[in-house]
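User: Predict the structure for this protein chain, please.
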Amino acid sequence: VQLVESGGGLAQPAGSLRLSCAATGFTFSNHVMGWFRQAPGKEREFVGSISWSGGTTYYADSVKGRFTISRENAKNMMYLQMNSLQPEDTAVYYCSYTGWSGDPPAPKTYWGQGSQVTVSS
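Assistant: Here is the predicted structure, written as structure tokens:
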């Protein structure tokens, strides 16, 4: 399993950025995918998730109405569109997938390497 984020960088307050996550090594279209973030000195936190079909999304209250998660199963890609960015959105953003394997089955969460997003004027 490999997850590779891209698209981070520097944005001004009220600006926008779009992150991408390229997934390989598993049947992407069968699985829920998620975005998490970790700010300096803080624990990693949930940003949002998207169902296997893309028809259902969930968001943390802190990003609801500003961030949008989407996916293209044909390309094994997931996206995070971030609008109205604020300095408190500064963090390393990770895409994530949890699969089940083993006997008995046990969950294993996979993470990308992360993409830095900095919001500053």
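DSSP finds no helices and eleven strands in the chain.
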